[in-house]
Amino acid sequence: MNHVYDPGREVSAPEVPGIGDRAGPRTEGHVDGRQGRRPGGNGDHPLHEGFDDVDLERVSRRPGAKWALADGGIAAWIADMDFPPCPPVLSRLREIIEVGDLGYPNWLGRTPLRAAFSRRMAERHGWAADAAPVREVTDLIQGVQLILHLATAPGDAVALHVPAYPPFLSSITASGRRLVPLPLHRDPTCGWALDPAATDDAVTRAGARVLILVNPHNPTGRVFTRAELESVAETARRHDLLVISDEIHADLGYTPHGHIPFASISPDAARRTVTLTSASKAFNLAGLRCAVMHVGDPDLLRKRDALPSDLFGAPSFLGVEAALAAWTPEGDAWLVTLVEHLGCNRRRVAEMAATWPGVDLAAPDGTYLAWLDVRGTGLGQWAGKAFAEGGVRLSPGEDFGPGGEGFVRLNFATSAGILDEALRRMDAVLRGTAA
Ligand SMILES: Cc1ncc(COP(=O)(O)O)c(C=O)c1O
Questions:
Q1: Does 282 sit in the ligand 1 pocket, CB within 6 Å?
Q2: How many CB atoms lie within 10 A of CB 343?
Q3: Whose CA is closest to atom 16 on ligand 1?
Q4: Beta strands in 299-390 (DSSP E)
Q5: Ligand 1 within 6 A of 293 CB?
Q6: Is the pLDDT of residue 91 over 60?
Q7: Is 0.85 surpassed by the pTM of this model?
Q8: What is the CA(414)–ligand 1 centre distance, in A?
Q9: Range in 107-121, 351-365, 400-414 the model is least confident about
Q10: Are the beta carbons of 336 and 27 closer than 8 angstroms?
Q11: Strand 157-162 relative to strand 360-361, pairing
């Protein structure tokens, strides 16, 4: 299955610390897009220009998978946002189109994105990531697949926290590797917790060679703390695991949930980690197909670099240029307002979910995804279908593997108005009043 169009891709938390704020320092040149306020049950919410002016009529005519495959309902499933690209990306792409040169780029096999990634990791996260071990890939999942081919053999075991972003599940099994599911469990203090003892046990029994870490985590929205990452690093050291760390949602953390690159945890973690990321989630550029892969393990790096580079394909010119434009102070200023806006939506979802009998939500620490447990509602495995019939397309939990049954994932990266309408429709379904 083409993972881009995969349906999977694609409560009691009235007061969660940090809701509505952004992680990290406020960037200079912050665009204050507040336009007004909308009422909310738990205090009111500011409106944000460029985010709250997305209109249902217009957005529902979009040709991309998210809206085109929403069957006439509100599209709150696949992890794309409803907002236009940020100003620096738009102006760079317009400039390129207007100049009219869509021929071969002149970067001769080594794009400027490698240095931009290295700079960004140092400036935002204090991780001194060398640019030399960086390669571009078209998307994260291609990077995972390449590394599994290089570092493991058919039949090898690959550990992954579940529930999981569906293409990880299919990518592991499609390459003939064995999935070792590591269940996250609901925890009243942190939302969703890792279980180091169970991980140790599962990894030992399966003889796993690789652990795929997704942080921030999709679908739960957990942003793992330093202590949790240190415990993962300790497990990896004890079992000599290669860690593939997907950090694609790193820029979407809500205060106080700052992102910590796994490779920055310790010198040992740095040597056993492949970091995969891109600008595509935070800056909404998934269709431009461009991501980066940083390999910390010197042996794996030699193996990777011994391969003909054609095997990796080449990133799209527009994808590289868009990422370069996004990873700038202007892009980060937009990101400040984006995260502020998403924080308001997150609060709105948590407030509403808290009123729904039988529904449990741990508000996400990061991402624009709400992982709703609807097992107590009686909708059971039909929840996704029931909400779709009620006019909101969500991602059904079953797609996310073990532990996903009885859950739905709501994508709240839209305007306040569209979100309110989606929540109203969900409310009607849950209260049995849907038309
Ligand atoms: C955690 C995570 N990893 C990877 C991806 C997909 O990235 P790509 O389109 O670059 O394969 C997504 C998309 O939603 C995601 O949420």
A1: no
A2: 22
A3: 218
A4: 360-361, 369-373
A5: no
A6: yes
A7: yes
A8: 18
A9: 107-121
A10: yes
A11: unpaired
Reduce the DSSP state of residue 377 to 3 states and report it: helix
For ligand 1, atom 9: residue with the closest CA: 139
HSE-up of 16 (CA within 13 Å, CB side)? 30
pLDDT confidence band for 14 (50 / 70 / 90): very low
Query: Ligand 1 centroid vs 432 CA: distance in angstroms?
Result: 34
Instruction: Find out whether the beta carbon of 214 lies less than 6 Å from any atom of ligand 1.
Output: yes
Whether ligand 1 lies within 6 angstroms of the CB of 231 is answered as no
Assign 392 to helix, strand or coil. strand
Domain boundaries, the chain: 3-84+330-430, 94-328
CATH number of the structural domain 94-328: 3.40.640.10
Q: Under a CB-based contact definition with an 8 Å cutoff, are residues 129 and 121 in contact? A: yes
Nearest ligand 1 atom to the CA of 143 is 11
Is the CB of 275 inside a 6 Å radius of any atom of ligand 1?
A: no
Residue type, 94: R
- Residue of 78, 218, 249, 284 best suited for mutating to test ligand 1, as the one with most atoms within 8 Å of CB: 218
Neighbours of 48 (CB within 10 A): 24
CA of 381 to the centre of ligand 1 (A): 25
Lowest mean pLDDT among 19-23, 237-241, 386-390, 412-416: 19-23
Runs of H (alpha helix) within 354-391: 383-389
Q: Is 79 in the pocket of ligand 1 (CB under 6 A)?
A: yes
Give 3-84+330-430's CATH code, choosing from 2.60.40.10, 3.30.70.2740, 3.40.50.10540, 3.90.1150.10. 3.90.1150.10
**With a 6 A CB cut-off, is 248 part of the ligand 1 pocket?**
yes
Sheet holding 291-295, edge to edge: 134-137, 291-295, 273-277, 242-246, 210-214, 157-162, 178-183
Q: What average pLDDT does this structure show over 212-226?
A: 98
In this prediction, residues 324-336 reach a mean pLDDT of 98
Per-residue CA distances from 307 to 108, 121, 139, 149, 312 (Å):
17, 26, 18, 12, 9
Ligand 1 centre to CA of 138 (Å) is 11
Query: Above pLDDT 70, what percent of the chain?
Result: 90
Q: How far apart are CA 377 and CA 425, in angstroms?
A: 15
